[in-house]
Design goal:
The complex is a heterodimer of chains A (about 575) and B (about 400). With about 575 residues, chain A is an alpha+beta fold. Helices cover about 40% and strands about 10% of the residues of chain A. Chain A contains 24 helices and 16 strands. A six-stranded mixed β-sheet of chain A has the order 2-1-6-3-4-5. In chain A, strand 15 and strand 16 form a beta hairpin. In chain A, helix 14 runs parallel beside helix 17. The longest helix of chain A is centred in the last third of the chain and has 21 residues. The radius of gyration of chain A is 22 Å and the shape is globular. Chain B has 13 helices and 15 strands. In chain B, the strands form two sheets. Chain B has an eight-stranded mixed β-sheet, with helices on both faces. A seven-stranded mixed β-sheet of chain B has the order 2-1-3-7-6-5-4, with helices on both faces. The longest helix of chain B has 27 residues. Classes of the chains: A alpha+beta (about 575), B alpha+beta (about 400). Chains A and B meet through helix 7, helix 8, helix 10, helix 20 and helix 22 of A and helix 4, helix 6 and helix 9 of B. The complex binds iron/sulfur cluster (SF4) and zinc ion (2 copies). The site of one zinc ion has 6 residues of chain B, from loops.
Chain lengths: ~575, ~400
């Protein structure tokens, strides 16, 4: 088999045993890797409680990992989210995936629970269980520093140890496996860190074809203003979106009460560049390098983070925002959910937290002390506990990121159909509704959006299974990536066949969710977006979303997906019909 | 969705890339609709229902060039490989099906080819193109294939003459009937300098529309800008030049804001051209004869193979310089500004034309018309020379 290692490494943390298992070619061809493979491997475990010791935590690389395919050296972690209760996956950059594949496996599947803090070291020769009582309670950078001599590290911080429901797993280079709280799943297993160190090379079936496809991708990157344009993400990172969202009047402000924040220019891409002498940084194997850091190597925040620690909490100080980001990274906590939970809590109590207060509260959250005990549960549970459930701005318990749905109706729909809850990255309609890629669509229209969302979900599920970065697709398309994959594996893939794989993955995820009780009632936005307008002005009108039209389009989505009007499966044996 | 179908049907007629009676468009939302010429509409629906795509155009091109390319292709070949920038960057190549491949139900076969390409040529039927997310995208892909096959066919004829029966006659008809005189006469330009923002936006939209109406560009290829003081007003990426209202980004020259991230991929080229020329306006389009002639390099024994991006010579078409360079961050922005500074016009290899105006769009428009007319004349001069 070319492209894949053809094996998975199972690890039982309770008995401290590890065993390799072959993965069939049929399974790999049908699910690719990363998200798809992880989701498939969750079958039969998907109704377990996220903190059940038997719940798997899966680290998976993709068939392009280890090849020079642009942005494809990424890792996906899959399990069930303690925050949302949904099937959950998240991808992250860094060398980890490359070294994991280099150890001769496509994926790690961890289960069980260690009584005492443990770290795993995985190499091509086997697995070592290392007792690390001295690292429990340590921050992410301290943990990474202690272990990085042994390979690439994925670790949790205090937030993961303490079961914060939006705790991250952090990669040694600073990338995060974020949003859904997989750090807490890892913490519940007593697992502080996973270190991998392999360097078995990955062969490419047709080198010439591969290089041609790679050049095609690079040409499209150069032709994309969003990627390599002089105002694009390679120059300014994702905070390049700050000015755009301000101008489109869809920057969530004060817990989504408004959609323009006057102080946002303080943390725009150019403002960050000049304040911190930001330099290019990014994931291993990526020519775009969209991440930014200070000359000292401190990671600077992404768009969603600056906007949520900024506008969403009414904070204009860039300095405070950067500190909050750094603190979340050190403590191992998701910035979007942390900031959104603080904001919901702020609106409930009638006052949004100021910059320094945010930092104190973040630390309290990670250690679950005082107000932090409540905040550690995320905005849905916190707002409910305080008697104001309507002030939690989430879908399925996952806090909405920094794209106000009143400013982009495809985004409104996509938040609701996303299998992992209120996430912008599944169908990613921002790409066409705002950034005009691959074509522009009318952001204030629902027309055709159900189909567009379904197609984009399928496409992105394939991308997440390759595992490539979504930002590549501001320039390249599945056409070039299908070529890369065919050239790497020697098996013919086409954009159409990749989208069919993506569809299988999306439906499998949805099926798992339905098995856990999710249905149409969970595919809905907070009432605020249907009742209150955003901040109109400058010739742009931001009315509330038309509920009837939204529901109509959601029903279309169900029909396109072959689901019942309740958003569920008519066929209880759907999974059995899949490879 | 139905409104989209009629919008793009009308566009295909207006831009004269398809025969009015030979157009069908299909789109699928929760249901599939297919409208237009009945046979083609049936085919469009049959093909689209097999694909994870929203839109599809099946149309018979107004010129038989794509079919000629298929008929001229050696047996055993299954795709056309044009060398213009459009194809190189976005299409890669254009697969085709021969009439003899089609059988009773060609839909599955066409769908299979479209499973990996944006557009294909089906001999005797026309160009079939998909739009992954919108009907507009299918229209754009149809136009890209039409443009690329047009360019490639005219190049082939220039190099190899007519081969097939009927070709010379069809070509003569193209020359005498399809082609129209290209002129700026009768167009009104606002005299510059323009100061008011609304006036600038309106003038850009007007001139954008002129470029399409006069056949200088296919609607979404190309871009246009106006510089007023510290702001460059530029058309957005993938914007149709004939409907620019609301699709023009004011970009500060000092990069103090990034909301111009949606501006045309040639923003950097425009910025550098303004710096090099001191001009106030820039027009950029892909007029077909300029694209064709830019690829006619007489240099013998040149070691460069990737001429379109690597060639560092400046060649001339009449008094217009030709340079190499890729779109966006690919070198065009570096090579065009020095070449354009003196002559106020330049051609990019296999790609298109840039022209500038000192205070308004009148000069720029006139210059682009002149370049294309020169290239058109030169093309036919060389063709006659070749055909003897
Ligand atoms: S584009 Fe950015 S996030 Fe994506 S792989 Fe590259 S550096 Fe990482
Ligand atoms: Zn161009
Ligand atoms: Zn040359």
């Amino acid at each position: 088999m070319l492209g894949w290692a053809g094996a998975i490494l199972n690890i039982d943390l309770t008995s401290r045993t590890a065993w390799r298992e072959d993965l069939s070619a049929e399974l790999l061809h049908a699910y690719l890797g990363g998200r798809g493979l992880g989701v498939r491997l969750m079958r039969c475990f998907h109704t377990l409680d996220p903190f059940d010791p038997a719940m798997p935590l899966i680290f998976a690389a993709g068939p392009l990992c280890g090849t020079p395919a642009p942005t494809a050296a990424r890792l996906t972690v899959v399990s069930r989210s303690p925050l949302t209760g949904t099937i959950y996956d998240c991808s992250a950059g860094g060398r980890f995936a490359w070294r994991l594949k280099g150890a001769g496996v496509d994926a790690l599947r961890l289960s069980g629970r260690s009584e005492t803090p443990v770290a795993l070291v995985v190499t091509a020769d086997g697995v070592e269980f290392v007792d690390v009582p001295e690292l429990w309670g340590r921050t992410v950078p301290e943990t990474v520093a202690a272990l990085s001599g042994r390979g690439s590290v994925a670790a949790i911080g205090p937030a993961g140890e303490n079961g914060v429901l939006f705790a991250n797993i952090m990669m040694g280079e600073g990338n995060s496996v974020g949003r859904g709280g997989l750090g807490a799943v890892m913490g519940a297993k007593g697992l502080k860190a996973v270190v991998v160190n392999g360097d078995i090379p990955v062969a490419v079936a047709d080198r010439e074809r591969f290089d041609r496809a790679r050049q095609d991708v690079m040409r499209l990157f150069r032709a994309s203003p969003v990627i390599f344009g002089e105002l694009g993400i390679a120059e300014y990172g994702t905070p390049a979106l700050v000015d755009l969202m301000r101008q489109r009047r869809m920057a969530p402000t004060e817990n989504f009460r408004h959609t323009v924040f006057e102080g946002s220019a303080n943390y725009s891409g150019p403002a960050i560049r000049s304040a911190y002498q930001a330099k290019k940084d990014g994931c291993y194997g990526c020519p775009i390098q969209c991440k930014k850091s200070t000359p000292r190597g401190e990671h600077l925040p992404e768009y969603e983070t600056v906007s949520h620690f900024g506008a969403l909490n009414g904070i204009a100080s860039l300095d405070a925002i950067v500190k909050s980001n750094t603190l979340c990274n050190e403590l191992g906590m998701d910035t979007i959910s942390a900031a959104a939970t603080l904001s919901a809590w702020g609106e409930v109590r009638g006052r949004f937290p100021g910059g320094e207060e945010v930092q104190r509260l973040l630390a309290d959250t990670a250690f679950r002390r005082e107000d932090g005990e409540l905040l550690s549960l995320g905005s849905r549970r916190a707002a409910r506990a305080l008697g104001r459930p309507e002030l939690s701005m989430e879908v399925k318990g996952l806090e909405l990121p920094a794209y106000d749905p009143r400013g982009a109706y495809g985004m409104a729909l996509a938040y609701c159909t996303s299998n992992r809850g209120g996430c912008h990255l599944r169908a990613y309609p921002i790409s066409h509704e705002i950034l005009r890629k691959p074509v522009a669509t009318d952001r204030f229209s629902f027309s055709g959006k159900a189909r567009i969302i379904a197609i984009a979900e399928d496409t992105n599920a394939a991308i997440d299974s390759l595992v490539a970065c979504k930002f590549s697709f501001f320039g390249a398309t599945l056409e070039e990536y299908a070529e890369l994959l065919s050239a790497a594996t020697g098996i013919e893939y086409t954009p159409q066949s990749l989208k069919e794989i993506g569809r299988r993955i999306c439906l499998t995820e949805r099926f798992y969710n339905c098995a856990n009780g999710f249905d149409v009632k969970d595919d809905c936005l907070p009432a605020r977006f249907f009742a209150e307008p955003g901040s109109s002005g400058e010739g742009v009108d931001i009315p509330p979303i038309d509920r009837a039209r939204f529901d109509e389009e959601l029903q279309k989505y169900y029909r396109i997906r072959g689901l019942t009007p309740a958003g569920t499966f008519a066929d209880p044996d759907f999974l059995l019909t899949q490879p | 969705m139905r409104d989209q179908v009629s919008v793009y049907t009308n566009k295909l007629i207006a831009d004269r890339s398809a025969l009015a009676q030979g157009i069908a468009i299909a789109a699928q939302d929760d249901v599939l609709i297919a409208e237009g010429a009945p046979d083609l509409a049936r085919l469009a629906g049959d093909v689209l229902s097999r694909l994870t795509c929203l839109g599809m155009v099946v149309a018979c091109p107004s010129l038989p060039f794509a079919d000629f390319l298929v008929a001229r292709a050696p047996a055993g070949e299954s795709c056309i490989v044009p060398h213009d920038t459009e194809t190189r960057t976005f299409l890669h190549d254009i697969p085709f099906l021969r009439r003899s491949d089609l059988g009773a139900d060609p839909a599955p076969l066409i769908a299979r080819l479209l499973g990996s390409r944006k557009g294909v040529v089906v001999e005797g039927v026309g160009i079939v193109a998909t739009g992954a997310l919108t009907v507009e995208q299918a229209y754009i892909n149809y136009s890209s294939v039409f443009h690329s096959t047009f360019v490639k066919y005219l190049q082939d004829v220039l190099h190899h003459g007519f081969i097939l029966p009927g070709e010379a006659e069809a070509f003569a008809a193209f020359r005498s009937q399809w082609l129209r005189p290209l002129t700026h006469e009768g167009l009104a330009f606002r005299p510059g300098p323009l100061a008011e923002r609304d006036e600038i936006l309106d003038e850009i939209a007007t001139v954008g529309r002129y470029t399409v109406e006069r056949g200088l560009v296919d609607s979404f290829f190309g871009n246009i800008s106006y510089r007023a003081g510290e702001v460059i007003y530029i058309s957005q990426t993938a914007a149709s030049l004939d409907s620019l209202a609301g699709c023009i980004d004011p970009v500060p020259t000092d990069n103090s804001s990034t909301f111009g991230i949606t501006a045309s991929s040639e923003l950097l080229a425009h910025r550098r051209i303004y710096e090099a020329t001191g001009a106030a306006t820039i027009l950029h389009g892909h007029p077909k004869f300029a694209v064709i002639m830019s690829m006619e390099c007489a240099e013998e024994g040149c070691a460069i193979t990737d001429c379109w991006k690597e060639c560092d010579r400046v060649r001339f078409l009449g008094d217009t310089p030709v340079v190499a360079g890729e779109i966006g961050a690919g070198g065009l922005a570096r090579r065009v500004p020095p070449a354009i500074a003196g002559p106020r016009k330049a051609v990019v290899y296999g790609h298109g034309v840039f022209t500038v105006g000192e205070t308004d769009f009148a000069d720029a428009f006139r210059a682009m018309v002149a370049v294309e007319n020169w290239c058109r004349r030169e093309y036919f001069r060389r063709l006659e020379e070749r055909l003897g």
